[in-house]
Amino acid sequence: MQPPPYQLDEYDPYRLIIHMTLVSVSICSIGILVSAFAMYQKVGLSLFNTRIDILGDYLHSPLAIVYNISLLLTGSSFILAMLSLIYLNLHRFIQTIAYAGIASGISIILLGIFPLNFSPAHGWVSLFFYGITGLFFGLIIGSKWLNKLWCHPMIFHTSVLGGICVMGILWHFDFQRVDLMSAAPSASHDLVANLLWIHATMILLSGLGLALTVHRLTLERYQATHNVI
């Protein structure tokens, strides 16, 4: 039986978080896949030993515009999802996660505005992006001890892997050149490139995990309210 209209309105913020998170993951996935396929036609399998932000380089990537626009839309959608999470006012720690999520969304938008060929702005934006996503992953991991219901197993494991990637990426950051890789070719180049691809994948999977978490919270809240009624 369909719940009364006031119950539907009450759970709209939950639905908005789920939908906007899924939208952001979908847009980002499509942008990466389309631009990566076009780049693959040009460089082959060596693409995966190259930093992922090459996809947004207007000088080298055939569909850089697709990749960068997808980042703008992804960041905007995720910010909207996090604003809805703040509106729910679940817990102060969850609020902190939401604010970190907003900062992550802003950094994604900035990556779309300042792609790889915009140096050194891209380097500083990348540093902000990996630093804030590392904080976001850390807060998600910490939420497991706050409330097991909040931290879905999927988002916990992807956050652990994502956090490890962030530490590896920041360890290799060259502050003199304001870049993720040193000027001189080295064995670490392939490692950093692989970490960048894995990190991007963990962000997408964490987005799915966040949607699953909020979906589970929606069901729990609905059942609790329905039982009371």
What can be said about this structure in brief?
The chain is mainly α and 229 residues long. It has seven helices and no strands.
Relevant terms:
single chain, 229 residues, mainly alpha, 7 helices, 75% helix, disordered N terminus
Query: What kind of oligomer do you see?
Result: single chain
Strand content: under 5%
Please bin the fraction of helical residues: over 70%
* Largest sheet, strands/sense/barrel: none
- Categorize the overall geometry: globular
**Intertermini distance:** 13 Å
- Low-confidence regions: 1-10
Number of helices: 7
Please tally the β strands and state the result: 0
The class by helix and strand makeup works out as mainly alpha
Q: Compute the gyration radius: what is it?
A: 19 Å
Rounded mean pLDDT score: 84
Give, in order, the helices and strands.
Answer: HHHHHHH
Written account of the structure:
The chain is an all-alpha fold and 229 residues long. It has helices spanning 5-10, 12-43, 64-88, 92-113, 121-146, 153-171, 188-228. The longest helix has 41 residues, at 188-228. The two termini are 13 Å apart. The relative contact order is 0.14. Residues 1-10 have low confidence and may be disordered.
